[in-house]
Design brief:
It is built from 11 helices and 45 strands. By secondary structure, the protein is mainly beta. It has 5 domains: 290 residues, Phage tail proteins - horseshoe like beta roll fold (Roll), CATH 2.30.300.10; 63 residues; 50 residues; 85 residues, no CATH class; 74 residues, Immunoglobulin-like (Sandwich). The chain has a 6-stranded antiparallel β-barrel with strand order 1-2-3-6-5-4. Strand 24 and strand 25 form a beta hairpin. Helix 3 runs antiparallel to helix 4 and helix 4 runs antiparallel to helix 7.
Length: 702
């Protein structure tokens, strides 16, 4: 019985004949005929899904036949349907790591990925603005990797399948075979073009290689050099690497595919592992004079209404996924829309969720000298062995056990669970290692520890007070911001530090740097006030750092620019016999500079007073300046002349002493008078509530 689910998640049962197709890195699909299940036949509509062998599929086409009261349908695996119906509305250019592309494509889809393939960063131009499946196919193609879907996790691997010891032979487990060759892209010669000698000059010399296949001399007399499309990639800087790429393109240009109709000997008790897409098997057919190891590209299996597999047909070949996938990208949207049936080329390998696999398994137990062996009746590649050495799980018929529990430990490609607890966990790259042990995470450079994340512990109270992240002396610790779009060719993602403990810091002399921009206020509740200290100079800037407005030194404070005091006074504080007293500055309506001195007139009852050259530099004597006189003798005094850099004082008697005070307008500020600060009362109220009850300092003479 097959379970169908409508848009409202109501479930219906039906009996169907199913043709299930799987292929390397393509879309897994079903086509079937519904014979029994009236609710399904009456109500099936767009948006319906079904579950078959523990996997979810979306119905994309269905046809009702009133002659025999059946319905034929086609369906695609849910992952491929959803990804084809989800757009990616960005455009990327340049080189990025594989993980960057995958993160962007899987974001918000409900699917995640697990990547075990090592792929260097690669370049895309105008990548994006399409459905996510087409973009995903292009990324997988260029990265030359393969993938499988397990529930909501997409596993990225260098290559799917296993190298099986299975032999397929005519008259034994091979019913019919058909060999097809494709010489369309056949080539015997290729060229490669790599990096320029001057990276910014495309007219400079370029790395070049050429390759002739072993068939070159044989075909040359008739056809000449049969040339492949050149490999042109500026990322190649080493001739051997470029030559390997050209050789691969030429040697794989002759395509051979083999279609086999296998006899399922498992159904009659033979312990034979039915191969899966990606597996390598050995095929022997004397009538075709063929004997070779080939890779399974596609598997098509027929199931009757009881769910029994009745026929298996496999297509084998040496083709890479990139070549197989090209046919699927152009038609996926039409298939998902139900406009055309699912092409056989679109299929992916079968991987069932662990829970569904366990519940749906039909298992045969054997008690042998090796222990208890459990073999899945529907797929003899799946083997579990239990003996005194431990437990092992195999997916290649028992040749290897990639998941095992023994006295030496647990081996597994992947671990899943809500909680994993233990004593120590460790992960490492080529140059960095992280170890979690007893609640402390230690970071090292493979040779020495360089930092740790642990609990903060108060030795005095013997209590845990929080969490601490530390770096060791001689090592830095950064909190920064990364930009995946600027990834290096090797996949390294650059970052800029926002906060950094410097590698020159020590336990007794901690040092750190702040490199980011603060976008909030600095607030402190430290008792006694907040201190900002430096051994020599503190500078404050309010113009983006182009210049400082306040400079604090050990001996003085300098203000660069206007200095305004609101509702207060500018005071000099001095020591008196009665404590420290403030002496307010004298305020004027205009900007003046002054000087004070004493002198006396001569026998001619006059004296010339020269203005101090430094004072002369500060005031503009082209503007009228003022001289105030104080008599220190029994005489009368007046200013008889005001020169540019002097003034003359006269008296009515000779040898008469006096004091003088000079006030002149400050040079550069001659026209300023009671300058409008443009501040408002409302603004002052926000400045620490300077005017809580209005402007109490305003008075009127009206």
């Amino acid at each position: 019985m097959i379970t169908f689910i409508d848009v409202d998640n109501n479930e219906y049962q039906a009996q169907c004949e199913i043709e299930k197709t799987d292929a390397v890195n393509g879309e897994k699909s079903l086509s079937g005929t519904i014979y029994f299940g009236q609710d399904v036949k009456n109500n099936i509509a767009k948006g319906w899904t079904l579950s078959f062998l523990g996997e979810g599929y979306v119905v994309v086409t269905y046809t009702k036949n009133d002659k025999d009261n059946t319905i034929t349908f086609s369906a695609v695996q849910a992952f491929f349907y959803k990804m084809s119906k989800t757009g990616f509305y960005e455009t990327w250019n340049g080189s990025h790591a594989l993980s960057n592309y995958l993160d962007a494509l899987f974001s918000g889809t409900g699917y995640t990925y697990d990547n075990t393939a090592s792929v260097e960063a690669f370049e895309k131009q105008d990548w994006g603005m399409s459905d996510r499946l087409s973009l995903f196919n292009g990324i997988i193609d260029q990265a030359k990797v393969e993938f499988s879907v397990e529930g909501t996790v997409v596993h990225i691997v260098p290559a799917m399948g296993s190298d099986l010891s299975t032999v397929v032979r005519k008259k034994f487990n091979l019913d019919t075979a058909e060999i097809q060759t494709d010489n369309t892209n056949f080539a015997t010669y290729g060229r490669g073009y790599g990096a320029y000698s001057k990276p910014d000059d495309t007219t400079s010399d370029r790395l070049k290689v050429e390759y002739k296949s072993p068939l070159y001399d044989y075909y040359y007399p008739k056809f000449g050099a049969i040339e492949a499309a050149p490999v042109a990639d500026e990322r190649y800087t080493i001739a051997d690497n470029l030559l390997a790429a050209v050789k691969k393109a030429v040697d794989s240009s002759w395509a051979i595919s083999l279609t086999l109709n296998l006899v399922d000997l498992q159904s009659v008790g033979y312990d034979y592992a039915m191969a899966n897409p990606g597996d390598y098997i050995t095929v022997i057919d004397e009538s075709l004079n063929f004997s070779d190891k080939v890779r399974i590209i596609k598997v098509t299996s027929d199931y009757d209404i009881r769910g029994t597999r009745t026929k298996t047909e496999v297509e084998c070949g040496r083709l890479a996924f990139a070549e197989q996938q090209k046919t699927s990208q152009s038609t996926l949207s039409n298939v998902a829309a139900g406009k055309i049936p699912v092409p056989n080329e679109w299929l992916t390998s079968q991987v069932q969720l662990a829970t569904n696999s366990l519940l749906a398994a039909r298992t045969e137990l054997s008690f042998t000298d090796q222990g208890i062996i459990a073999i899945d009746k529907s797929d003899a590649n799946k083997v579990v062995i239990l003996n005194s050495a431990g437990v092992g799980v195999s997916t290649d018929g028992g040749q290897t056990f990639k998941t095992a529990i023994t006295a030496d430990g647990v081996v597994a490609d992947r671990l899943f669970g809500d909680l994993i607890s233990g004593i120590a966990f460790e992960t490492a790259s080529d140059h960095y290692k992280i170890k979690l042990r007893s609640g402390t995470m230690t970071f090292s450079d493979l040779d020495n520890n360089i930092g740790l994340l642990s609990a903060a512990y108060d030795i005095a109270t013997k209590k845990t007070t929080g969490t601490t992240l530390n770096t060791y002396q001689g090592k830095s610790l950064s909190l920064g911001i990364s930009d995946p779009s600027k990834a290096e060719d090797d996949g390294t993602i650059p970052y800029k530090s926002v906060f950094k403990i410097l590698d020159s810091a020590t336990y007794d002399d901690p040092k750190y740097g702040l490199y980011g921009q603060l976008v909030t206020a600095i607030a402190s509740s430290q008792p006694g006030g907040m201190w900002i200290t430096h051994p020599s100079v503190i500078e404050l800037s309010a113009n983006g750092g182009t210049g400082n407005q306040l400079e604090v030194k050990s001996s003085k404070v300098s203000v660069l620019g206007d200095f305004n005091v609101y509702n207060g006074s500018k005071n000099a504080v001095q020591v008196t016999r009665d404590g420290l007293r403030a002496t307010p500055a004298y305020e004027l309506a205009e900007n003046y500079v002054g000087d004070i001195g004493e002198s006396k007139t001569g026998e001619d009852e006059t004296v010339r007073v020269d203005i101090d050259p430094l004072v002369f530099d500060l005031i503009n004597t082209d503007k009228p300046y003022q001289v105030f006189l104080t008599a220190y003798s029994d005489a009368q005094f007046w200013v008889s002349e005001r020169g540019k850099d002097y003034f003359i004082v006269s008296s009515d008697s000779p040898d008469s002493a006096f004091g003088w005070e000079l006030k002149g307008k400050r040079r550069g500020f001659e026209d300023q008078r009671l300058v409008d600060t443009k501040d408002t009362y409302e603004g002052l109220e926000k400045m620490e509530g300077l005017i809580p009850n209005g402007n109490q300092n305003v008075q009127s003479n009206s």
